[in-house]
Design a protein that fits this description.
This protein is mainly alpha-helical. It has a single domain, classed as Non-ribosomal Peptide Synthetase Peptidyl Carrier Protein, Chain A, CATH 1.10.1200.120. The protein has four helices and two strands, in the order ααββαα. The chain is elongated and about 90 Å long.
């Protein structure tokens, strides 16, 4: 069971997904830092607060923190735009490689494939 778990963990796709997830989490930290440290203070200065996150208004006894919401929306939009640009660049590279013919093509089947084909053909003739 331990051996099967090790094989499962070491599969290429799972490792790639794990690396992608870690990269995405750190990327989120970068975007949050950019939004909170650069964008939010600039917009906050326009609305008269030290930071956009501090922008609020009172309704009766309650406080509506619309600045924090806007900060999250801005972070979402920036993240979405950057991911869009990454996917667009990836698709452009993928299309260019297809035009050049860089696809993985199997030109000569291996000896085991040839043997399996012979067995298949022999079974067909007997049936």
């Amino acid at each position: 069971m331990l051996k099967e778990f090790k094989e499962f963990i070491m599969k290429g796709n799972l490792v790639e997904i794990a690396v992608g997830l870690i990269f995405a989490l750190k990327f989120k930290d970068v975007i949050d830092s950019f939004t909170n440290g650069v964008i939010s203070p600039i917009i906050g200065a326009v609305v008269g607060e030290s930071s956009l996150s501090d922008a609020t208004f009172d309704i009766g006894d309650g406080v509506v923190r619309y600045g924090a919401f806007l900060n999250t929306v801005i972070t979402f939009v920036i993240t979405g735009f950057v991911l869009f640009m990454i996917v667009k660049a990836y698709n452009r590279v993928l299309e260019a490689s297809k035009r050049r013919g860089d696809e993985d093509e199997v030109t000569d089947p291996g000896e085991d494939v040839l043997l399996l084909r012979e067995i298949r053909d022999e079974l067909r003739t007997r049936a």
